[in-house]
What we know:
alpha+beta; Enolase-like, domain 1; globular; disordered N terminus
Amino acid sequence: MKRFISTTSLRVVSSLNKTNNKSIVGVFNRQFTNSNSLSGVSDGKNSYTSGFTNTLTNGNKGGNKVLFDDPKFYEENKYHGISKEPFDKEIADILLADLNPNDIEIKPDGLIYLPEIKYRRILNQAFGPGGWALKPFGPPVVEGKTLIRPYALYCMGRYVAESIGEQAYSDSTPFISFATATESAKSNALVRCCKDLGIGSSLWDPVFIRQWKSENATEKWFENSKTKERRLFWVLSNGLDNKLPYPWKESDFNQVPSTSSTSSSSSSSSPISQSSINQPQQETISYHQEEQNVSKITPEQDDLEDIDIDDVVPPQLKRYAGKTWRQLVADPKGLSYLQWASSSFDNAPKVKNQAMAILEFINKSEVSQ
């Protein structure tokens, strides 16, 4: 006779792909154990692999997608020790302690947050290393351009909370691997679960947010060095280096933009994405333009142009078409290819100069090491 955890089904809907009206529906109900996504459980197959494959291939046939493929997710003993008793006062004091204002960070859009590693340190301090753990319930699932995975947090052997972690990811995105995206989703789920323990609860308090911003952050103007677009972003005001990643640089709003074609550049510029702001500082390399191109440079510019190490290589370098300079340099055969390119392409001097600049950058890096 089947047993049900609850008669209530929790539906988690995501409108990640609005064009196709796709949605993700996770149902906390054991009657789904007979669905296609869990067919591997009853016939002796590997439930993890079978569930993962079917979730990706068959999930949208009926419009619904079952995310939680671990059969243990549907058993009541999963909730062992839930709300049995409060944790000791010593533990509670650590979990509920006020945050150090210097530990809090702010995103360019003004959202304040506590770095994920701080949550881990608080848990380790409260329960000790090994006294807490995140258990995944089901494999990672990619829907649209987002990777998601459900987790539950256990402390001292007791169920505490559960949440779904997410991370922007796509097969066509070269700067983040599937493994890195999965780890980021795990960290995201941990932060969400820690809210139930009261860790960093002030980060969601509007009064605290306004007070912290007034004392620790400020808004400054930044200019996109490529498009000359100007945006107002939040940064820390504690004197620490908090520059935004390339191509954004701090700008004086009262100054005239560095190019005369402000109107044309602003019309072609696109809004900055959140993922690009959160990426690590990018490396840039400067190279000299050929004489015939100098006349095209405005008086406000010099004879140098920046190469973004994460930009896609020119299409003339056919062997690495679609790849970035960073990927080319990381290839064992990339150095010899650059040497060939730097001595070729006389009919494409810009490509030749870029290859020479990358080679010079590599040589300088090796000397400095």
